[in-house]
# Entry
Amino acid sequence: MDQFKVYNCKDSFATLLASQTLKEDLQELKLMQFYNEIVQPLADLIIKINLRGLYVNIEAQNAAILSLEEEISQLQSELNEIAGREINVGGDSLKSWLFEDIGIKIPKKTKTGKAKVDEDTLRSLKYPELTEVVQLILDIRSKKKLKKTFLEGLTPDIETGRTYSNYRIGPATGRLACKKPNFQNIPEGVARSVFCSPPGSKFIYADFSQLELRILALLAHDVPLLEIFKEGKDVHDANARDLFSKKPLEEVSSRERYFAKTFIYGLNYGGSIETIRGRGSEVFHDISEKLMHEAAARYFAAHPAIATFRSWIQNELKTKKRLVNAFGRPRVFFSPPTEALRQGYNFPMQSGAADIVNVKMLQIEKEIPGALRLQVHDSIILEVPEQEVAEGVRIVQEILEERVKEFGGYSFPAKVLIGNNWGEF
# Structure
């Protein structure tokens, strides 16, 4: 016990000494205000959110597990029928079927010389006729992971009925990350429905509308994109019209819209055509790289301000290896040039969005203490007593859409909804 006391005293004293040095560094970098107004209060709020937890509906949890088991069974039957035999999507039978029975050339191998069948490798296969099969394999894997990790692995506290995550502030962009469970990795659908408001309470769900694209438009001063947002148009529909040269009254298909959304996000975040095509093979499998290069050229021709903004980022990284977001959050880039450039394109949007949400959460906590329960990127969930829902919605809407001085007084639109479980939103 004495050794334990000594260790804790030394650890606390070392932390105190380090804090003095770090404080001097913050003052030298003129970051004390940013630290005092955002970072430290946010750290305090995260501790509170971690201790509040989310209520878990056990009946919904069991129903979700059964539902996923049925979906997995159906998909597995489809794959087995295609292959003509039983296929284990995580085992050697998949490798033998792909690389021996079908005769596909092994694209990548592990260090021990075995064929790789991870997601990136499967999506990189240059066989258009296998696109649907690859997606089937990946769907089975993702549903199995969802069932095992996020549903069967979910163990709420016996006394409170809640599960408690562990949020932390991401050092690179200020985005919150969490684990055990990682709420940010739980996809939309049945798995989210198990997290609910307890009897006598409701969830208030709030989500910003295309936050990062709006930030890009503001930072780049891109008039066409700003006009789309000002007029309340569907930005992905508008981009699809540009990319596919649609006439004013000509309808945009759901696939064309999805293509535009996936493709434009990939470009804006610094993805290469090859990377975008590989990641979105279910969308782009029948579109050649040449056509995608042409589409990229049309996009930047229609949005020259974004191209100019990207050039500015390139120059900043080349000369300073450092960027600062609208709130004053800095990031130094140590990665190899290609990776640093991708991170650099990403940083102003992602970190700007993260700090907008962070600041809004701090404001909400002051007005509705103890209500915040969950944050997943641009969305948040509050748990409030039923009799306080109407007032809570008014406060949240007002705070989220209050003008942000760091972005020239722009008001970022947000939707605010009421529900009983996360899956409803």
Remarks:
- The mean pLDDT is 92.
